[in-house]
């Protein structure tokens, strides 16, 4: 596979996390964030010839939601494609359009509004309707199974309190984190309420182009797992591991050389186990890494606001802000490289890992 | 940027309901046929992209996930409504053109046979406050356009019936088609009115099925029979149909999004005289009246000359052949239909279309149409690489 392709840069970023804003409908939320992102890029709508979206009809509450939401994201008379997939996957697809020479400048936007859909019902419908669906299985239950399997395999659960404490501190300092409202599903053993994400209303957006800018894409990796949960290795997470490895290989860096990591995980345990899969922590020590490794999820991760399918792009926005030195109260010093990882339904079935660097 | 071609085509038969096959079986049936046609194994695929439109039609959420193939491979799902099938092909093409893949498997699935009534589902694609109670559906939406075409350009219901009857006759030569009906224009006109001026047999059926293609980079093509991708273009329009009635860029039936896509695709493919340079066209038009909107948008005639162009199409064999497969009136598996159009064009270009083969196809054009005639795609395929 060819490696001679143009570099892709992030020119502008935007992110809004909130809850039940009764002054604005979904289209208005999308419009505001996309508009702010285009302004942030500083180029106006000049040369923006493509829009790539990540959104789910089941979440948006319409059978073909992009009919009304795509124009709000700037698609009018532009090339547009919507992925019913995670925001990081849409970002990767948008990157290929720039690299292919199909687009000069692309808007990538992802959103989800948890305050207007039944989070648990949408999660249940993702599973097999014959064998799994009648059991009422939700993604958070798979997270519970993952956590159990990890503990049984020798995972060190002792640092959980420290990890939660660090995460709460990060959320308090993150100017973009949800401040009021939100929804937490019912925890399933061995998870507790504070391990769970805070579901929120989220719109994330970036503008990318081949024009040199402060943040450059250095590596990209994608991978997938089988559908059936029983066919997956819940603890080793081979899809995540492979996606991260591919992105690091492309960036010609090791994970130790990455200054900041933003990793999407539904629960605290998913984040911890994910850190082991990408090589940040040895097997069984993911929670410890979450508790002590300042490079990891300085945004507060899923506790700062969560709603699929926006999360992968949220992680990319947070990583880009860190490299630009604009992350506010959670800014880390001297961030030159960052990895952002997105996971998709169903229960992290596919992964996209992105390595960004200061250009 | 790398050249690419379609080297494998796989389709299930299209039926009202594939009650004996699960979604993953339909996906795999099409994928396996495409891989066999390409002479490649799943291991050779670098990326897999699936296209599924409204989840509500299938009654399952993200049904494509259950049919995921190629353990560990990058996998994405596209959903752009009626253009899902073509958008999925374009997404795969981008990975190859970017040099991130040598071969991509794209597959589109439609399971709308699980829906008790598709129009109830389609009613929910419209604005819940102003349009849903109308009741606006894809049928009434098409009827509004058909009546506008009649008023502006002088089309009659005879034109719609002629187009529909031709599509049904073509579908009889396509063993995969859902409907094999021997219908004349008179039969079409005698069928019940769905919403004036649209008769039942001017509309597409509800079909289930899957379509898959293997896309390959130039170096992967080798000696394989190939349909070269000359151009892909996609354009989105505004949601509100009222905004499109009297705007300067083009009215509601001018199909601006398709015209802009065609202009971009033709420029990339070097097409300056569509009537002479395009031998066959596969259209995603779910109603025969909607087919009339595409002729001027694709550069085959001026809009006011549309009725005369329809009449000429029925008698002049030198004109491009439209929908040799029967088009969506032969089968309309919504999520897959725009990919089926590309698949049929690929078969035509490769000379593998069987009884529906058109003579002398050097170039073929496939369109996609989705939303409230809001999303349009154009794909140009050729017998030889463009450069």
Class derived from helix and strand content of chain A: alpha/beta
Number of helices of chain A: 11
Strand percentage of chain B lies at 15-25%
Shape of chain B: globular
Helix percent band of chain A: 25-40%
Span from first to last CA of chain A?
25 Å
* Helix/strand/pairing category of chain B: alpha/beta
- Following the backbone from N to C, one meets helices and strands of chain A in this order, namely EHEHHEHEHHHEEHEHHHEE
Report the sheet-strand fraction of chain A. 15-25%
Order of helices and strands of chain B: EHEHEHEHHHHEEEHEHHEHHEHHEE
The largest contact between protein chains, plus residue counts on each side, is: A-B, 57 and 67 residues
Structural description of this entry:
The complex is a heterodimer of chains A (359) and B (387). Chain A has eleven helices and nine strands. Chain A is α/β, with parallel strands linked by helices. Chain A has a nine-stranded mixed sheet with strand order 3-2-4-5-1-6-9-8-7, sandwiched between helices. Chain B is 36% helix and 18% strand. A ten-stranded mixed sheet of chain B has the order 3-2-4-7-1-8-12-11-9-10. In chain B, strand 2 (47-51), helix 2 and strand 3 (75-78) form a beta-alpha-beta unit. The longest helix of chain B has 17 residues, at 334-350. Chain B is globular and about 55 Å long. At the A-B interface, helix 3, strand 3, helix 4, strand 6 and helix 8 of A face helix 2, strand 3, helix 3, strand 8 and helix 9 of B.
């Amino acid at each position: 596979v060819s490696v001679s392709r143009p570099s892709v840069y992030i020119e502008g970023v935007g992110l809004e996390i909130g809850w039940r804003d009764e002054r604005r409908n979904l289209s208005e939320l999308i419009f505001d964030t996309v508009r702010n992102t285009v302004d942030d890029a500083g180029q106006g709508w000049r040369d923006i010839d493509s829009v790539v979206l990540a959104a789910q009809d089941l979440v948006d509450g319409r059978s073909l939601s992009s009919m009304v939401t795509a124009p709000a994201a700037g698609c009018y008379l532009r090339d547009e494609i919507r992925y019913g997939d995670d925001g990081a996957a849409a970002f990767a697809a948008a990157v290929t359009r720039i690299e292919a020479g199909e687009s000069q400048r692309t808007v990538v936007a992802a959103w989800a509004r948890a305050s207007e859909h039944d989070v648990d019902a949408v999660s249940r419908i993702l599973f097999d309707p014959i064998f799994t669906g009648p059991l009422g299985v939700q993604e958070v239950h798979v997270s519970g199974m993952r956590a159990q399997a990890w503990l049984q395999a020798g995972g060190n659960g002792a640092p959980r309190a420290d990890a939660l404490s660090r995460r709460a501190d990060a959320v308090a300092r993150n100017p973009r984190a949800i401040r009021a409202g939100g929804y937490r599903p019912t925890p399933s053993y061995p998870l507790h309420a504070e391990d769970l994400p805070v579901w929120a209303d989220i719109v994330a957006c970036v503008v990318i182009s081949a024009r040199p800018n402060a943040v450059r894409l250095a590596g990209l990796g994608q991978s997938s797992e089988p559908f059936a949960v029983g066919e997956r290795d819940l603890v080793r997470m081979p899809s995540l591991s492979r996606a991260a490895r591919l992105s690091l290989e492309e960036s010609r860096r090791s994970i130790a050389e990455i200054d900041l990591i933003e990793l999407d995980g539904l629960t605290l345990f998913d984040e911890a186990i994910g850190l082991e899969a990408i090589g940040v922590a040895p097997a069984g020590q993911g929670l410890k890494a979450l508790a002590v490794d300042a490079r990891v999820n300085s945004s507060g991760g899923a506790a700062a606001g969560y709603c699929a399918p926006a999360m992968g792009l949220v992680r990319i926005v947070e990583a880009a802000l860190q490299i630009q030195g604009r992350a506010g109260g959670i800014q880390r010093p001297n961030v030159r490289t960052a990895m952002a990882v997105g996971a998709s339904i169903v229960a992290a079935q596919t992964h996209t890992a992105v390595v960004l660097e200061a250009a | 940027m790398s050249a690419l071609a379609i080297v494998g085509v796989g389709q299930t038969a299209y039926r009202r309901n594939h009650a004996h096959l699960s979604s993953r079986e339909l996906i795999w049936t099409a994928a396996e046929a495409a891989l066999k046609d390409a002479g490649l194994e799943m291991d050779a695929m670098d990326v897999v992209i699936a296209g599924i439109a409204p989840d509500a039609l299938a009654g399952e959420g993200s049904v494509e996930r259950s049919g995921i193939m190629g353990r560990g491979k990058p996998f994405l799902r596209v959903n752009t409504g009626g253009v899902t099938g073509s958008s999925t092909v374009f997404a795969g093409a981008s990975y190859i053109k970017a040099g991130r893949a040598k071969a991509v498997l794209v597959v589109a699935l439609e399971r709308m046979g699980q829906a008790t009534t598709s129009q109830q589902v389609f009613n929910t694609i419209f604005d819940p406050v102003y349009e849903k109670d109308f009741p606006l559906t894809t049928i009434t939406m098409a009827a509004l356009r058909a009546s506008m075409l009649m008023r502006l350009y002088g089309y009659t219901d005879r034109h719609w019936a002629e187009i529909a009857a031709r599509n049904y006759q073509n579908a009889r030569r396509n063993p995969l088609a859902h409907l094999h009906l021997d219908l004349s224009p008179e039969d079409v006109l005698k069928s019940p009115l769905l919403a004036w001026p649209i008769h039942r047999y001017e509309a597409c059926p509800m079909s289930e099925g899957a379509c898959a293609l293997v896309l390959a980079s130039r170096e992967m093509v080798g000696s394989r029979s190939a349909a070269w991708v000359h151009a892909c273009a996609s354009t989105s329009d505004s949601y509100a149909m009222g905004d499109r009635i009297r705007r300067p860029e083009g009215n509601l039936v001018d199909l601006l999004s398709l015209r802009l896509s065609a202009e971009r695709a033709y420029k990339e493919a070097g097409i300056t005289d569509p009537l002479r340079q395009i031998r066959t066209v596969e259209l995603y038009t779910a109603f025969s009246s909607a087919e009339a909107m595409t002729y001027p948008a694709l550069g085959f005639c001026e809009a006011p000359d549309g009725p005369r162009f329809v009449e000429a199409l029925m008698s002049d064999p030198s004109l491009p052949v439209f929908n040799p497969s029967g088009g969506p009136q032969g089968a309309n598996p919504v999520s897959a239909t725009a990919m089926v159009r590309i698949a049929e064009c690929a078969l035509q270009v490769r000379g593998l279309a069987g009884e529906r083969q058109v003579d002398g196809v050097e170039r073929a054009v496939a369109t996609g149409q989705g939303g409230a005639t809001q999303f349009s795609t154009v794909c140009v395929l050729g017998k030889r690489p463009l450069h």
